[in-house]
Amino acid sequence: MPAPLNININPASGFREIARALTVVENELTGYDDLLKNLPYSHTPITGITGPPGAGKSTLVNAIISGLLEKGNKIAVLAIDPTSPFNFGSLLGDRIRMATHFNHPNVFIRSLATRGSLGGLSAKTIEMTEVLRSAGFDHIIVETVGVGQSEVEIAGLADQTFVTLVPEAGDEIQNIKSGLMEIADAFIINKADRDGADLFINNLKKILHHDSSRNIPILKTVASKNEGIAAVVNLMLATPRQQKKRKELLLTERVYQIIRQRRMAGIDKKKLRQQIAEALKSDSFNLYKFASAYENQ
């Protein structure tokens, strides 16, 4: 019989205990399921920060942390980095860009790899966020890999989602605007000191006015210079309670993701790749027959 898991997550838990609990959940170590089932419910707000690569999300989050600390908040950050589809490694570069806050007693930062998840979140992000919610933080920030039509997972996890863009994203927004409208509670135009920023913002306002019935704020920032960050922090802290319908949608998406990842728990991606490599030696390889046979194994 394995020894019982002795981890108690509560507002008095130290960062070492929190880190240990996150490791247990992320790697599904002995007792992780009981740990999750015994977590107390918490209303700690979660803000998702998403946007295309190069938008300066990590620098923005670093500046937001400083703004929240000035107001006396205790903050947890989950920074999601992409995983290589070839070696399953991850750079986890957010640790470098947020290094100034690593040793602060009121800041907890954890980097995660997507491990092949396509929606911008690690498969374990939802469960790990629930651990942080129970640990007495005032605010939780989840920074995701990117943005696109499939980036609805962050809307299912976060109480509010900020989409970060840069002035150069003018053409790109026309291609992904439908997905953006669905998930954005605010747009943050970072690096707003660049040429074309005002024109880009005006075009974005026209798109929002035409395609969205919601009044979605647009904020200008230059995160590297700490400009416009106070407005972002104030918006985060002033978020009203979610409407019942939206809350139901968020929780439905969250539960759906938990059910899906647990049903996929027995799928070893590296083993799957090896089996595909073997199957490809046959000239009669059929993707759908292979998938069907794999499901029945």
SSE string, helices as H and strands as E: HHEHEHEHEHEHEHEHHHH
Low-confidence regions: 84-91
β-sheet strand percentage: 5-15%
Protein structure class: alpha/beta
The coarse silhouette is globular
Q: Number of DSSP strands?
A: 7
Average per-residue pLDDT, rounded, comes to 81
Rg (CA only)? 20 Å
Spatial order of strands in the largest sheet: 3-2-4-1-5-6-7
Helix content: 40-55%
First-to-last CA distance: 29 Å
Largest sheet: 7 strands, parallel
Query: How many helices does DSSP assign?
Result: 12
Tell me what you see in this structure.
The chain has 297 residues and is an alpha/beta fold. It contains 12 helices and 7 strands. The protein has a 7-stranded parallel sheet, with helices on both faces. β6 (186-189), α8 and β7 form a beta-alpha-beta unit. α1 runs antiparallel to α5, α3 (57-70) packs across α9 (229-237) and α7 (170-183) crosses α8 (197-211). The longest helix has 20 residues, at 244-263. It is globular and about 55 Å long. The two termini are 29 Å apart. Residues 84-91 have low confidence and may be disordered.
